[in-house]
Design goal:
Blueprint: H1 3-19, H2 23-31, H3 36-42, H4 49-61
């Protein structure tokens, strides 16, 4: 796997952990493809810069909601 793809997957994994969602749910919501993350992780798919940008925009548009009870 290319280094930038490793960083990209790490970013998605962190987002999924914080959001409490699975990688397949993320793929469905961000890319309309439940197998997206698995394919990138396995090396079957290399994300383009456009894809990475699209995912960054998705994450920015859907940030984690801070739990008010934790305050």
């Amino acid at each position: 796997m290319l280094e930038f793809a490793k960083d990209f997957i790490a970013q998605i994994d962190t987002y999924c952990r914080v959001m409490g969602i699975s990688a397949s749910t993320y793929g469905e919501r961000a890319m309309n493809d439940r197998s997206f993350v698995h394919q990138v992780r396995s090396g079957a798919r290399n994300p383009s810069l456009r894809t990475i940008d699209r995912n960054g925009k998705y994450m920015a548009a859907h940030p984690p909601v801070e739990n008010e009870d934790a305050a």
